[in-house]
C-alpha cells in the first residue's frame, strides 16, 4: 500500500469484513434507521405554538371531530431531520438512472424550476381578475402555439391535469363531434398492447371496447385485423385509441393506412401521446392522420413526474375536432390572446363539450415546459428525441446476446422490451431479477407490461443519460444475467438485501393493507 508524505495510506486497501456488526441505534453509518413519525413524536407537545382562537360558532353541522387529533409533535430540528432521512430512502432521478419503460423519468433542469418560481408565475391565483394575469395568458397561448406547431394540429385543450385526464378530454371531444353530426356509435377499437387507461377511458364514457390483435412478429397493430373489425361493426365505430410509438417500443409503420381506414368509417383517430418524446421534431402526429392526442408534459418536456402531481396533459385536436375543445380556451383577440371561460363568451362555430376542470390547468407545469422548449430550440428538441432513441438502442445492443427480445433484433424507439425467456430453467423470475437490481442501486424497469409479452421487462433509459451511465447499467444487468445462469439463485430469491426494508409480501400488502398506525401493546416487564 502506498503512503503519502504524512504517512497516511493513499488507497483504501482491503476493506472487506468477515462479519456484519450490529449497532445499538440500528443505523449503519449514514444509512440511518428511520422510525415512523408516530413512533418517536410526542402526542402531548408540538413544535409550533398556536394562540387559542377567539370564541366562535362551529359550522360543521355536528360533523366536527370529537376526539383529539393525535398528531405527533416534533421540535423543528427533529422534523427537518426526519424528512431529510426519509428522502434518502427514496429513489429519484436525481440519485440515479430510472429505467421505467413508458414513464420517461428524465432529468428536470433546474432552470425550469427557477422560471416557475418567478413572481407573477409562482404566486399566481386562479381567482385573480383577468386584467392582472395577461402575462400568464400570453404564456399559455405561446406554449399552446408550439404544441400545435410541433404536432401539426389546429387547436389544443390546455386544462387537462394528466395523461388519463387528457384521454378523457380527447374522447369527449370525439363524442361531441359524433353527436353534432347526428351519429351515436357505440364501439372504440383498442390494440391489445395499449395502456390500460385507454380501454378504461372508453368504458367510462359508455363505449364498448373491442380489442385489435397485434402481429406476432413485431407487436404492431395488424392492419387486416383492424379492417375486419371495422367491417364487422360497420357504422358503429366511434374511434380507435392507439399509442405510437407503441408500448412495445416500436413505431406503427402502417399508421397512415390505419388512419385512412378509421376515417373512411366516419370514426376518429385518438393517439395516446405517452411516447411522443420519441418523435418530437421528427414526425408530426397531425400529418399521420391523428385527430386528438394528449401530451404528457412530464414525459416530453421535462416537467416533474410522480407523487400524484401536479401534472399536465394538454390535448391537441385536428381541424375536425377543434370546435369542440372544452372551456376554458384561448382565442386570438385584437389586443392579444383572450381567455374564454364561459358559454356566454362563445362565438359562431365554437361548440365546447363542457369543462374538464375548475380552472385553467397547471400554471407551474406550463412555465416549466415552455422554459424547456425555449432553452432547447427546435434543433435541441429534435436531438432529445434522437438521443432517447439512440440510448434505448444502445441498451438493446448491449444486452441482446444475453437477454431475450420478443420481436427479434429490430431497432426500437425510445424504449426496449425484453421478455423472460433468458431466465428459463434458472429458478429466477422476472420479479426476482428486478429485486436484485435494487441491491445494485437501480430502480427496476417496468415489469410484466405490456401484457402481450410474457415476463415483460420494459426499459427506457431516456435522453438524459450519458454513455458512461448506460455502460454501467448494461454491465450490471449482464452480471445479473450471468449470475442467474450460473445458478446463484440466493442472489435473487431474497433480494433486495441492502435496501432499508427487505422484500415485502406484495400479495398480502395489496389484499390486507395496514392503513392506520396503531400503538403497540406495552411490553410486560421482566420478573
UniProtKB/TrEMBL annotation:
List, for all copies, the residue spans of the domain called Aminotransferase class V: 168-306
Q: Name one GO molecular function term.
A: glycine dehydrogenase (decarboxylating) activity
EC assignment:
1.4.4.2
> Which residues fall in a coiled-coil region?
none
Alphabetically ordered keywords of this record: Oxidoreductase, Pyridoxal phosphate
Where is the Glycine dehydrogenase C-terminal domain positioned along the sequence?
384-481
| UniProt-listed InterPro entries | Aminotrans_V_dom (IPR000192), GDC-P_C (IPR049316), GDC_P (IPR020581), PyrdxlP-dep_Trfase (IPR015424), PyrdxlP-dep_Trfase_major (IPR015421), PyrdxlP-dep_Trfase_small (IPR015422)
UniProt enzyme class: oxidoreductase
Catalytic activity from the UniProt record: N(6)-[(R)-lipoyl]-L-lysyl-[glycine-cleavage complex H protein] + glycine + H(+) = N(6)-[(R)-S(8)-aminomethyldihydrolipoyl]-L-lysyl-[glycine-cleavage complex H protein] + CO2
The organism's superkingdom is given as Bacteria
The record, for NCBIfam families, names: PRK04366.1
What biological function has been recorded for the protein in this entry?
Answer: The glycine cleavage system catalyzes the degradation of glycine. The P protein binds the alpha-amino group of glycine through its pyridoxal phosphate cofactor; CO(2) is released and the remaining methylamine moiety is then transferred to the lipoamide cofactor of the H protein.
**The name this protein goes by in its record:** glycine dehydrogenase (aminomethyl-transferring)
State which gene encodes it: gcvPB
